[in-house]
Amino acid sequence: MWSWAGPYVGLNLGYSWGRSSFTEDFTDIVGFPLFSTSGTINNIDGVIGGGQIGYNWQNGNWVAGLEADIQGSGERGNATFTCRAGACAINAITTSVTERLECSARCGRASAGPSRRRP
Fold first, then answer.
1. Alpha carbon of 107 to those of 47, 61, 68, 69: distances in Å?
2. Whole-angstrom distance, CA of residue 96 vs CA of residue 87
3. Which tens digit of pLDDT belongs to each residue from 39-83?
4. Within 13 Å, how many C-alpha atoms sit on residue 44's CB side?
């Protein structure tokens, strides 16, 4: 009989690429607009990798589980922006995504498992 119950571990490796744009409105403490900026983050690219570990419990067709994963990234990007009011002290910034740790729980109904063909 097929079962989803038990411990598991895994590794993952990939690559991401992207581009982002933004608009920010800056206000004072009472909400009066001071200035706005807009810009683009170019080429947010990099390798992503990590691992996960978890455990599943099964009762009939119902499965519950816990999982923890950690991801590391070499994603980097540069942003340039302009201020509409001309009040910016800088006009470029570098951004990066470094690591992430996540824990999650799941509960659901299991399928029948892989089919077995008979000759």
1. 31, 11, 15, 18
2. 25
3. 766 677 888 999 999 999 999 889 999 999 999 988 877 766 666
4. 15
